[in-house]
Amino acid sequence: MNTDRNMINQEAIRRELGEKFNIDPERILFLNDKKPEEPWLPAEALMTIARQSGEFQAIDETVEQYIAPLNQIVHRATVIKKDGTSFGRCGVATIGERQDIDDHALAAGRALAAALTAAGFNPLRPGAVVSLELNLPRQEYSQADEAKSRTTDLKRIHAIGIEKGLIQFIPGAGKDDRGYRQMLKEKYGVGSAVAFDGAERASLINYMEQLPAYDEFADVA
Questions:
Q1: What span, in angstroms and rounded, lies between the C-alpha atoms of 178 and 57?
Q2: Residue 79 near residue 86, CB atoms below 8 Å
Q3: Can you name the residues that pair with 129 across neighbouring β-strands?
Q4: N or C: which end of the chain has fewer CB within 10 A?
Q5: Which pLDDT does position 81 carry in this prediction?
Q6: Are 128 and 122 in contact (CB under 8 A)?
Q7: Residue 127: its pLDDT value, please?
Q8: What does the alpha-carbon distance between residue 41 and residue 29 come to, in Å, rounded to a whole number?
């Protein structure tokens, strides 16, 4: 019953977004199983919506690098608002991550969605623009944005680490993050993600999200 309702709602969302912003509704997908009515938009559709808002003087999205050891593609998107403030974010996809979307399209969409969200334009609610009144010089604003992005990413990494069982809380012993740090050492050659740049954090998040779910009772006889 819920599946049928979700499908009906998804079609309504596709139709509404397609008509409102003149984008192809068939390219609007729903990839988040936890939020089945949350639309995923390809970079081209996001650019169309963002440009129609009139809030940006420039929008750019490009391939940044290929991470061979992890078989990942990294894209970077940069948006510049009318006041000249810029926001750059990376999006990562693993080769073959999904069968229904091209790997580059997946990474590009993630990068641009992240950059627009950082700029106060929520691509999941197209047309919604939030004014960011920080009253900071442009250089300080950029530094504040990077600090905020770093904090957000590190919190997300920590949360995924708990979800995947890499970080555990043992009664009487506190936090055990040896599994997490071992994974970092094996995949990235470091014991902490604190010094990671945006592309490295995006890569780590993408890698961790694809790890199998943690079953706390798996080792119980």
A1: 46
A2: yes
A3: 121
A4: C
A5: 93
A6: yes
A7: 39
A8: 7
At the topology level, CATH places domain 39-133 in Double Stranded RNA Binding Domain (3.30.160)
Coil, strand or helix at 210: coil
Alpha carbon 13 to chain centroid, angstroms: 21
What distance, in Å, lies between the first and last C-alpha atoms of the chain?
Answer: 36
- Both tokens of residue 73? 């593609």
CB atoms within 10 A of CB 171: 5
Bridge partners of 92, per DSSP, are 74
| Residues 6+ away with beta carbon under 8 Å from 104 | 63, 73, 75, 93
Residue 104: CB atoms within 10 A of its CB come to 15
Q: How far apart are CA 108 and CA 170, in angstroms?
A: 39
pLDDT tens, residue by residue, 183-205: 999 999 999 999 999 999 999 99
Instruction: Judge whether residue 134 has pLDDT over 70.
Output: no
Please name the residue ranges forming H helices in the chain: 2-21, 43-53, 103-118, 138-163, 178-188, 198-209
Q: How far apart are CA 21 and CA 148, in angstroms?
A: 30
* CATH 3.30.160.20 placement within the chain: 39-133
> 101 with 110: CB under 8 angstroms?
no
